[in-house]
Structure formats: structure tokens, C-alpha cells
Design brief:
It is built from 1 helix and no strands. By secondary structure, it is mainly alpha-helical.
């Protein structure tokens, strides 16, 4: 087994290390924030944005 090396830290460095460890624990405990929904574009025909449904049958193009 490897020999342990004791490191002497100043109180200032020790406090900073504890703050970083607490922040790391908090980051793993809190789930990431959800991304906001995309903004729907507005038009005169669809003031609240375009509907999500599609036409049941696509239009046929008549060839002359």
C-alpha cells in the first residue's frame, strides 16, 4: 500500500477547500434546471402559434 503524505493547509486554504467540497455535494444533489420551451411565432391567422396537428390528407397537385 502507498504511504500517506500528510499535507499541512493554512486555515484559509482549508476553509476554501471545505467550501468547494460543499458546493460539489450541492451540485450533485440538485437536479439541473430545465431548458425553457421555444417561443412560438405569432401570426394573424394563428395568434397563439401554429397548431400542432397536421392535415389528415395532403393536397393533390393537378398536372395540366
Amino acid at each position: 500500500m502507498a504511504d500517506l503524505i500528510l499535507i499541512q493547509l493554512s486555515p484559509k486554504h482549508l476553509e476554501r477547500l471545505e467550501q468547494l467540497a460543499d458546493a460539489s455535494r450541492l451540485r450533485t444533489a440538485v437536479p439541473p434546471a430545465r431548458e425553457p420551451r421555444p417561443v412560438r411565432r405569432r401570426s394573424r391567422q394563428y395568434p397563439g402559434g401554429r397548431p400542432t396537428w397536421r392535415a389528415s390528407r395532403p393536397r393533390r397537385r393537378y398536372i395540366r
